[in-house]
Write a structure and sequence with these properties.
With 495 residues, the protein is an alpha/beta fold. It is built from 15 helices and 25 strands. It folds into two domains: 272 residues, Aldehyde Dehydrogenase, Chain A, domain 1, CATH 3.40.605.10; 183 residues, Aldehyde Dehydrogenase, Chain A, domain 2, CATH 3.40.309. The structure holds nicotinamide-adenine-dinucleotide.
Length: 495
């Protein structure tokens, strides 16, 4: 598969002719050759997005027409789902089940965005703020402009969808950069966007590493940055875009607390706790990597947990039954193994796993055993995001202690509470400093609801009405409801 740059509705070569390769993390096989854009190509992509932004065809398009385009994209994703699933499995190391869910969810997201676009009110008179005979006050919403959007490698198609959906719903334009580890599915999405009839230049897609990202974000014509990635890079980006006061939404890292209360249904909570930190081999930003378990159920919970962890279907992703595959790259593998060794050196108690899998079918991939440590807040992995299949389990006595432990983090992306008593769980949920909290669930997201983080997990929200509004500027228009000269309240102010 050859992946070119998608600029102004066409697939074009990198002007520097720099071509790199992406590999299947399950077995090292080549997946795609992708073109890396030069600074000149980035200029061309931003210029195309700028021209499209002012093109009357796009600028004046009705909300209904935008909604129809979003719906057509949703349909075309469904039509090509088999092909996208296949690419996503190989490029990102997703299991077949995860890739199918990702494609399904992305099609569903574009459908929701279509509804949002159709119902979006871009001009609203505020009756309460207005006064008859004096003022008519309205809010006018207008697209923010050309966006630079940067996505990570863990959910390549889903992340591209979350970024492009609101761009199309609001009349913005974009240059999106996919992660160089996983370039493939975003380019199938580019074909779909072209085939759905989105005007040339509205969506441009390129791939590359940090240098490409930096050149894109700091381009003077960029009006909004939408970034998903690590908190460390998020901080660097915020510094770099400060001189232009570029508006930004940031979806960053997490270290989410998963609280199991003494009245939880352990037949669900144990599997829920495993799913919370092992989904996609732990490479999900909202992973429940701090498992807090109430003291009196700790022995029973752990007995069940350590039995079930051995039953996770760890397999190469070529096997349709895989429930858990490789991590994305050798770099990520080394980072995770580094945290495991550090935890051992800090005397964290290793309860399960802790090793790279190297035998037989695992020999060519980047596989790590599902790993569990017993830890306290004194251990490094209580605080640092690992982004791999490693959980730290900590006992607590009281609900107050659970809340205090959960909030003892620089991050605030997500969390969960497991209890048969929903009122009790709600009471705890509402004290958690986290953008999403599940009660007796994990990882499930709703495109109509906001997703994002408190504290160093991010700025602003994606999805929901909050996500769409972040692509709009608001203009207050004050219209006089009285044109009689003698009634102007300011008339004698300076005379
Ligand atoms: P990363 O921050 O290293 O890279 C993310 C993206 O930014 C990639 O496309 C990369 O090429 C680009 N990039 C890297 N340095 C850059 C720079 N200086 N300027 C501009 N672009 C740059 O993150 P990653 O390792 O790819 O992804 C894992 C991280 O993403 C984790 O921290 C995870 O929690 C986070 N994440 C957050 C969410 C969320 O919604 N909050 C979702 C998925 C992933």
């Amino acid at each position: 598969m050859e992946i070119k740059l998608f600029i102004n509705g066409k697939f074009v070569d990198s002007s520097d002719k720099i071509i790199k390769t992406s590999f299947d993390p399950s077995n090292g096989n080549e997946v795609a050759k992708y073109h890396v854009p030069s600074p000149k190509d980035i200029d061309l992509a931003v210029a195309a997005a700028q021209a499209a932004f002012t093109n009357p065809l796009w600028k004046n398009m009705s909300q209904d027409a935008r909604a129809d385009l979003l719906l057509a994209i949703s349909e075309k994703i469904k039509e090509r789902s088999k092909e996208i699933v296949d690419v996503e499995v190989r490029d990102s190391g997703s299991t077949l089940r995860k890739a199918k869910a990702d494609v399904h969810n992305t099609a569903a997201f574009f459908k929701v965005m279509s509804k949002v676009a159709r119902e979006l009110k871009l001009n609203i008179i505020d009756e309460a703020a207005s006064r008859a005979g004096f003022s008519i006050n309205s809010r006018e919403y207008t697209p923010v402009g050309v966006c630079a959007q940067i996505i990570p490698w863990n959910f390549p198609l889903v992340m591209a969808g979350w970024k492009i959906g609101p761009v199309l719903a609001t009349g913005c334009t974009t240059v999106l950069k996919s992660a160089e580890e996983t370039p493939a599915s975003a380019f199938i999405l580019a074909e779909i966007i072209r085939d759905a009839g989105v005007p040339d230049g509205v969506v441009n897609i390129i791939t590359g590493g940090a240098d490409v990202g930096r050149d894109l974000l700091n381009h003077p014509q960029i009006k909004k940055v939408a970034f998903t990635g690590s908190t460390m890079v998020g901080k660097e980006i915020l510094k770099s875009i400060a001189p232009n006061i570029t508006t930004a939404t940031m979806e960053l890292g997490g270290k989410s607390a998963n609280i199991v209360l003494n009245d939880a249904d352990l037949s669900i909570a144990v599997d829920g706790a495993l799913y919370a930190f092992l989904y996609h081999s732990g490479q999900a930003c909202d992973s429940g990597t701090r498992l807090l378990v109430q003291e009196e159920i700790y022995p029973e919970f752990m007995e069940k947990f350590l039995k079930r962890i051995k039953e996770v279907k760890v397999m190469p992703t070529t096997d349709a039954n895989a429930g858990y595959g490789p991590v994305v790259s050798e770099k990520q593998l080394k980072t995770i193994l580094g945290f495991i060794e550090l935890s051992k050196s800090e005397n964290a108690k290793l309860l399960s796993g802790g090793n790279r899998l190297m035998e037989g079918e695992f020999s060519k991939g980047f596989f790590i055993e599902p790993t569990a440590f017993e830890i306290t807040p004194a251990h490094t992995i209580f605080h640092e995001e690992i982004f791999g299949p490693v959980v730290g389990i900590t006992k607590f006595k009281t609900e107050e202690e659970a809340v205090s432990m959960a909030n003892n983090s620089k991050y605030g992306l997500a969390g969960a509470v497991w209890s048969k008593d929903h009122a009790r769980a709600h009471q705890i949920a509402s004290q958690l400093e986290a953008g999403t909290v599940w009660i007796n669930e994990y990882h499930l997201l709703n495109p109509g609801m906001p997703f994002g983080g408190f504290k160093q997990s991010g700025l602003g929200r994606e999805m929901g009405s909050e996500g769409v509004m972040s692509y709009l500027e608001v203009r207050h228009v004050w219209e006089s409801d009285c044109d009689a000269r003698e009634k102007k309240v300011w008339l004698d102010a300076i005379f």
